[in-house]
Amino acid sequence: MNGWIVSANDLVVGTVVYYAADGWSGDIGDAAVAADRIAAKKLLAASESAVRDNRVVEPYLVEVELCRGKLSPLRLREQLRHRGPSVAQAGG
Amino acid sequence: MYRYDEFDAQVVRERVAQFRGQVARRLAGELSEEEFKPLRLMNGVYLQLHAYMLRVAVPYGTLSSRQLRKLAHIAATYDKNYGHFTTRQNIQFNWPQLRDIPDILGELSEVEMHAIQTSGNCIRNVTADPFAGAAADEIEDPRPICELIRQWSTFHPEFTFLPRKFKIAVTGAPKDRAAIKVHDIGLRMHRNAAGAPGFEVVVGGGQGRTPMIGKTIRRWLARNEILAYLEAIMRVYNLHGRRDNKYKARVKILVHEIGAEQFAAQVEREYENSAGQTRKALPDADEIRRIARHFAPPIGEAEAKADDGEGAKKLRAARAADGGFDLWCRASLAAHKIPGHAIVTVSLKPAGGIPGDATAEQMRSVAGLAERFSHGEVRVSHEQNLVLPWVRAAEVHELWRGLRDSGLAAANAGLAGDIICCPGLDYCTLATARSIPVAQQLGVRLGGTKRQRDIGGLSINISGCINACGHHHVGNIGILGLEKKGREFYQITLGGSADENAAIGDIIGPGFAAEEVGDAVDMVVGTYLKIRRAGETFIDAYRRVGAEPFKEALYAA
Amino acid sequence: MLLRDGAIAPGDSWRAVDDGEDLPAGNVTVTLRRFLAEREQLAARDGEVGVRINPGEDLALAASHADAVNTAALVSIIFPAFTDGRGFSVIRSLRRQGYRGEIRADGSLLPDQFAFLRHCGADTVAIADGEDAQTWLREARALSLAYQAGYAPTDARNILEARAQANRATLRATAITVATPEKT
Ligand code: SF4
Questions:
Q1: DSSP B246
Q2: How many domains are there within chain C?
Q3: Each residue's pLDDT tens digit, B317-343
Q4: What pTM was computed for the model?
Q5: Cβ contacts of A74 on chain B, cutoff 8 Å
Q6: Domains, chain B, ranges and CATH?
Q7: How far is the CA of C25 from the centre of ligand 1 (A)?
């Protein structure tokens, strides 16, 4: 089943965050899921109030697949945002 | 190297203070993201996929060891212990937190560095030949002009809100190591009939969506006229460059649409009109001399004259005795202006590594080696390598051992493994596909140094989107990552070149899936090896036979 | 609200009159087209006449009628968007062609651009009533130095001039003769 979640970057730190029932979370598992486009729009509108709270930057909708209770983004770009760079980092 | 005077230092300090205030206002909610974005971009701060990114200017690619140590310190303290050297001779940090950035900029200002104009629609950090001041073929060190341009373009009141970004590259040598023909303005030094050094002015080159080779609008321009002439070019562009379409806003489109002759005529008219005012204006000859003095070679005349050939002899002996060292020398050494010296390229392209990345430890080692062997000076090349410009021939072997200890002795500079590669979809928010994994895969497949030596000079350039930060258009083999139906695929171009014979590569056919790219490049290289004549490089062979044999090999099956 | 010389200025009486609109008494600004088309009528009335230049439309026209434009009592440059920097070059060109009257920057602008505008040769900036004039005045002073010689003097100190002065002082002190500038 597909759905939509809202993602953004944390204003202060810059890291990827997802809109959850009780605010923003770095864990995609916490994300609030909208089942259809109308619900998705509402979810985005709700998340935008958090922009006014000055916590995150530029929230937008991300299409996800729900598979055995796990959320995974459909697009590669969002998969990479979720998991981090696919290449080892020189420093780590 | 140039050293700031009190004024330069104050300009940067005030900028840091101003940005500190802007960040505080943003964090306090007084500035919206919409208002803050242009301000942060003007200070080199982007928001990428995973985090903020800070791009720090390395003016004309020249760094002191002290500055490199500071970059290492920033990588270790505020980031994940590494940095990425870019094709614009800058360095990017991938993980800084917004709240730390004013402190980072403050630390940078302590070593005369900044992030001013590394982004935005302004005159960007000026780039230059990484061998400037040291190359044997050079007419004159172009960096005094570069520093003049840096100062002149910093917070220019008239040209800070241009139609699009604006990049200037300068070379003082006939061999173009700064890719000046694919810049908005390229300046190439040569001598006029009377033997006086001056600059050919090339305008309207560029890559991105509409790649173009620049056109010469002035064959020769005296050095002391450069700023006034640049001002005339910038004014014509600022007034007439297109602002209705972001993709048509670069000066190359203006030059293309009205024609190079018409553009040149407008610039000359503007220059004549303003000549009375600006030619007499500052900077005067004293100021130009003051700046030029900073770039005097660190090797004194006496030492240069005293060379008795012993150093070169010692180097030859070491090369004869050690095959691995010899292979590295063949790739890494370039001829020096001063007898008994060599220019050493430090490849940041270990097979399977991330092109242009360096860890804090590696930066510190290079800084230490620069202090021991290169008068504390380091350069960044647009090929994303580092360069030590002032090495005694007698000490090259010892330097190599030091580099090897830090994992920095890849013997592939200028060879196929010296891949230019942008961050791509692993980091960049504009990307359409990943580029680093392709570079890693190719770096391994191309084989060891011996095979790469056999292939000879070959540039492979990879970009993760049409913006072409990985200079794919001017790679002998160019690879552009795109997205089709949610999958990455890669378009290959052949025949590009970034030097004095600059050329845009030709698209040879449909793209390849990620898992096919390695085979495709193998096929291209294999075809070249089959058709080449004795001593013929890849680009020469391609120019002789054209795309056909390569197309056939790739698509006939 | 009007800012002049890095301070809030008392409002003035210019009225922007559109094409085709009747001319009221007093000081008016008109579009460049009207200014050029109705020069006699405009000159015959009481009150001063200023011209509004929209860099998006009027560039060629303004350049080819420099003499006429130079007679205007005020030139208002209308910035269509703060990212559209043509106005800076228009201001600079006006000054270069000998215009000595007041140049006013109007339209979509940012506080950060105040100092640049003045540097290019603008005298005044019109800001929207809701805006915080203090932010504008503060930003104008954020950078106290400038590298570009030959631009209009402002509060910012010119680095090249300061260096030239310092050089001359050193030269006098050491009594070395000044070398003639490079000839080409
Ligand atoms: S070429 Fe594209 S993907 Fe690569 S760094 Fe530039 S904008 Fe990002």
A1: G
A2: 2
A3: 999 999 999 999 999 999 999 999 999
A4: 0.95
A5: 486
A6: 9-109 (3.90.480.20), 135-293 (3.30.413.10), 304-405 (3.30.70), 420-555 (3.30.413.10)
A7: 58
